[in-house]
What does this fold into?
Amino acid sequence: MTSNLFSKVVENYKDLKYQLFKAQTFNPNHFGFPPIYYNVMESDDTRIGAFQNAFDRLDFDNKIVCEAGIGRLALTKFYLPKVKKAYLIENNPELFDLIQTKIAESGYAHKVKLIFGDAMTVELPEKVDFIVGELMSIYCANEYQIQIFKHLRQFLKPDGKLLPEKIINIIQLAFANFDTNYQHYPINFIRHLPTKFSLQTVVNTIDLYTIEAEKVVVKIPIVPILSGTINAVFLESFIEITEGANFTGTDSLMPPTVCRLAKAVIVKAGEVVHLRCEFNYGTSLDEARFFID
It folds into this structure.
């Protein structure tokens, strides 16, 4: 059985190249994702484990929590037994009935306030100790992590905590084969990795307690360690959920991603180039621009 399953995967490697991209594409109103994506995320022990580690490091006993984008309660179930009160926000109408059923069956309905609506406009009636939300995409380019936390952090107590707290965006020069209609794709299998021409370089660091600007324009020097033609950049995001609890991306959340350069260029090993990066949080990575000046 295992052999047959592996054989099917091997036979379909090429066709699977863009399937992760399609599974992670939410509808234009950002209500939610295809059902398969909820299965992907809920079966991701690395992703769930990183947040569970953060919950274990912090004191949730008798605290007030707000979680944005609760989905099917993949994270909620770990802290809900401990807290005094939880404001749980979800904007995907396809999940409302399921969420209400799960909360009713949990035994903790008395401490839950369900808010079905847009987390960027929600008004909470009190300050909270923790704001939880893994509304992240690579570079926060596709999802509203920045905008939602900018709005919700007004309800955070002075000594309260955001989870996550910090996102560090990393880049490398690369060469990749793209199908005509695609500007970027997340890595599904290692064979879909591009050829990398440089070591990792930090593009920017997002402090979710203080971030205000939603547009990023930076120019960074990079020294190639290989010579040849580059036509892409390889993107990664490192996430500090809380100090000591980190996450660096998997195929279910913030997967390492290949994005086209605006124009292919030839580089030489050891000769510095200047990479210009322009992107907006909460739009689309297809609108991002990366080019060598």
User: Anything to note?
Assistant: Residues 138 and 254 are 4 Å apart (CA to CA). The first helix runs from residue 2 to 11.
